[in-house]
Amino acid sequence: MPELMKAIIFQQAGGPDVLEIAEVPVPAVGPGQVLVKQQAIGVNFIDTYHRSGLYPVKLPSRLGMEGAGVVEAVGDGVTRFKAGDLVAYASGPLGAYAEYHAVVADRAVKLPDGVSAEIGAAALLKGMTAEFLLRRCYPVKAGETILVHAAAGGVGSILVQWAKHLGATVIGTAGSEDKARRAKAHGADHVILYRDQDVAAEVRRITDGAGVPVAYDSVGAATFEGTLASLARRGLFVSFGNASGPVPAFEPARLQRAGSLFFTRPTMGDYQVTTQELDESAGALFEVIKSGAVKIEIGQTFRLTQAKTAHEALHGRETVGASLLIP
Ligand code: NDP
């Protein structure tokens, strides 16, 4: 095993330019950890929040929460894995943007036969997000019509397919004609071009005035008003991301005036507190992948050393499906 490896670091918060390629020591495997020799690294929008300072981290910092590869070494007390296992993980400590990463064994999962490291790194964080959003945050029922923003994106494309699998009618939104076509190919029944069209007016038209019982909004600031106005009476606003910036403060009375609405701001960590919850979520994800109900689209692949380019593409709304870094 080499002593040094390539990793992405940043000294201060900022735009993609703050990302540097560094040579750092290969981490030692601590008790309860496994050392993963990475084959693929998942790029997630949350990485941009860590980098920009929207979600503050201690600086200087490493980056990245998701990766997959082979277990190279096993720390004291680990019984869950052995050297040679193909695993994936989707949680901290930050540092997935590297050739090797030491991760907490209880937060990693073994990839089943037929699921490659690339699919694991493209799917785990985004797919377990879709799992908790559709099955536990708001259990979507067959026959319901739901709204999914950024439907051609990483999480969005999985949400659309899984919601269709559950029997829902899906209204997606997308930032371009090309992305609208992709969202439709993933099964979206209707796609609203939200940069040009009035989302709430379209949702009301499609639902004969009723609105949707649940709206999954990862775009944040830019879509807040449209999402609020798209909900049916007693509907649930699931605000789970900030791609356009965080949702500004609002008066709770607005939920009353818009029809006794509910509002939640969930995060995946709270839906997989225990290893059992993690295993159940990942298990449900692997099931829909293996059955073919959900196809993981790897839209872009970059070298690890091109992390800055990958972040520029995410900010530029140029990506579709998942993005990977390959060490
Ligand atoms: P995506 O691949 O979905 O990329 C984000 C997409 O958001 C873009 O492609 C773009 O699609 C849309 N978008 C709208 N406005 C902007 C903007 N101003 N700048 C950039 N993009 C914009 O990313 P991920 O799949 O990694 O994540 C999707 C969302 O889910 C993120 O907000 C992320 O934070 C959130 N998330 C939340 C989790 C949680 O536990 N709460 C867990 C995982 C992800 P278009 O061009 O079609 O508008």
From TrEMBL:
* Family annotation (InterPro entries): ADH-like_C (IPR013149), ADH-like_N (IPR013154), ER (IPR020843), GroES-like_sf (IPR011032), NAD(P)-bd_dom_sf (IPR036291), QOR-like (IPR047618), Quin_OxRdtase/zeta-crystal_CS (IPR002364)
- The UniProt record lists the Enoyl reductase (ER) domain at 14-325
List the SMART domains: PKS_ER (SM00829)
Q: Does the keyword Electron transport apply?
A: no
Q: Say yes or no: keyword Acyltransferase present.
A: no
Show the Gene3D superfamilies listed in the entry: Medium-chain alcohol dehydrogenases, catalytic domain, NAD(P)-binding Rossmann-like Domain
Q: What is its EC number?
A: 1.6.5.5
One function term, GO molecular function aspect: quinone reductase (NADPH) activity
**UniProt keyword list:** NADP, Oxidoreductase
Q: Which Pfam families match?
A: ADH_N, ADH_zinc_N
The name of this protein is: NADPH2:quinone reductase
Q: Which organism is it from?
A: Phenylobacterium koreense
